[in-house]
Amino acid sequence: MPERALPYRPHNHQACVSQALADARHICREHNARLTAIRERVLELIWQSHKPLGAYDILAQLGTEGHNAAPPTVYRALDFLLQYGLVHRISSLNAFTGCTHAGQKHQGVFLICRQCGNVLELESEPVARAIDTAAKTEDFRPDEITLEITGLCPRCRAGAETGTD
Amino acid sequence: MPERALPYRPHNHQACVSQALADARHICREHNARLTAIRERVLELIWQSHKPLGAYDILAQLGTEGHNAAPPTVYRALDFLLQYGLVHRISSLNAFTGCTHAGQKHQGVFLICRQCGNVLELESEPVARAIDTAAKTEDFRPDEITLEITGLCPRCRAGAETGTD
DNA sequence: CAACGTTTGCAACATTATAACAATTGTCGC
DNA sequence: GCGACAATTGTTATAATGTTGCAAACGTTG
Ligand SMILES: [Zn+2]
Ligand SMILES: [Zn+2]
Ligand SMILES: [Zn+2]
Ligand SMILES: [Zn+2]
């Protein structure tokens, strides 16, 4: 068994955050898109853990920071981050999580632990191929794929009460 | 190319409805569950087409029928129908669609046309296996799988403005 | 600086979903 | 049938999530 993925074990999460922010700055520069203060702060808040954050959670945190935030502020920042593939929306949770494959062409598969709430984003070529084949069988042309798997992460299965923040 | 699936071509949809209601009655009898008038009517409304229906759409239609309906009425009926696998919730649409595999153990894959709105529920063993393998690789135990594929159905690709109701 | 497009602030509103408690209905033993 | 009990439904209110529209502020470019 290879080493467990980051969300499932203690790790230097600050490194996750730094990497995400660096990627974001790079991607935005490449696209001539402005990673403004609010957008960057929202991304940073989303990355405060591997647990998806609701728009209103983000809003509440911004509220305690002097930013004069209303729902559109948050949703606009989220739209921007989604557009450039810096975050993903988890439909089954109405929440948002940082993309761990920013800048790479990828089709996210999300493993969502119902105990600790952490989410692991996978890339799976076999899954992508199987889905593509299934769609082709019906002559359907896929556009966007939402694949969210809820269950128990290894850490929670082992009995830990909560995962790493 | 085999014949297109029902939602993508004109078909005797009344047969879909009858089959769904018959299945529902059978499944409820088996489980000693009461398919009350409201529950049956909600199921029937959901089955009025292959396009998922929002809870408030259902509510509005009930409202025109003498039923004295409020949101909880609908959500409770939906909870019941979900519990017995008679309908599915489409997370990415916040809407509900009739299950076309009621009573069978299955893992739904939903093909959602962004043009006509029709949904086709597939069962795909290869997809299920690929997902299972991917989860196992991370030592994750799946519980519930949401797989929703948005795109263009064959009918809409061929230029028709709308699909069959 | 002036003009323009982008981003943000802000107020109101729309949509989706749930909580709490009372009233009604169905079921079962008597 | 009748009373007791559980399941279902009615009703009101409220929570949670997401959007519209317009005005002000900001950044860029000539
Ligand atoms: Zn981390
Ligand atoms: Zn967990
Ligand atoms: Zn049909
Ligand atoms: Zn279509």
Automatic annotation (TrEMBL), chains A, B:
InterPro entries: FUR, Fur_C, WH-like_DNA-bd_sf, WH_DNA-bd_sf. Homodimer. One of its GO terms (biological process) is negative regulation of DNA-templated transcription. The gene is fur. Coiled coil: none annotated. Its cofactor is Zn(2+). CDD domains: Fur_like (cd07153). It comes from the Bacteria. This is Ferric uptake regulation protein. Keywords: Cytoplasm, DNA-binding, Iron, Metal-binding, Repressor, Transcription, Transcription regulation, Zinc. It comes from Marinobacter persicus.
